[in-house]
Amino acid sequence: MKTRFIAIVLFTGWAQNALSSPITPQPLRKLVIESEYILHADVIDVKKVNPRVRRHGAKAILLIKEVLQGSMIEDTVEVFFRPSMICPGPASYEKGTTVLAFLDQLEQGYFTHALSYGSKTLDESAFNLYKKRIIEMQDIADIKDEEEKSAKTIDWLISCAMRPETRWEGVFDLSPQSDFISYYDPEKNMVVHNHELTDNHKSELMDVLLNIESLTYKDFILVDLVAEDHEEEVLQFLVRKLKETETKSSWFRRLFIERITELSGKASLKRLVKQMGKLHYTDENYEEKVANLQAQFMERM
After folding, report:
1. Which residue has the higher pLDDT, 208 or 185?
2. How many helices (DSSP H) and strands (DSSP E) are in the chain?
């Protein structure tokens, strides 16, 4: 739908100062398919590594709790990473935490697949949910019939989207063109399935959306998935949530503004959005100008 296009074009213009430069996203589906090993492990130590000896400046010592993919006989593994990286984001390992790590093995040791996407610090409840989804995706990957695999992948993505812990893992693949980061993804035009969402799928996602107390960035992709079939209901929901939000972040409010403008079709709101689009974060008094236009938007919506 049109909302997806607007989100990409406008967001890329003004969110550069809010987000680090993106890399190709790696949702859970890709991580399971591409990683050699998946471990649930305790980070028992993090040590510096001589950068002259290895390109990576640190290594995490992981005490394995469970191996979810691959075969290992070790009780512990050393995972090399570069914590000082700024762009793209590095894998994250902190002593005393428990992680879900997606790893590959090279001659020099173990490394995190997809950098920041491949190391997830999760509590026990979230881990159990991820474990369930990982096992399901492993089973789906083994299906030989492509039609069946495609249909089950859709159902799996919906299951991910239904829960806040795994929501991004599902919605990114369900609606990659509505996500800012996917603008930089060379695979953004590769459809992972051949099936359209069913009315039942959309109803499930709509129920999830309407029951979200406080919207986060990833929740807006849910909006893009259901808005075309529930325009008025989604519009009223977004207007209500925008009035309730207490965030002072102009870029986060912009997520509401873009979609409300598209769904309402009001010419006055479109003119304000067009003016916002001409602003650049390096402009003098940028935040003040944006705040003024957004205040006008609130009055007219």
Report:
1. 208
2. 11, 6
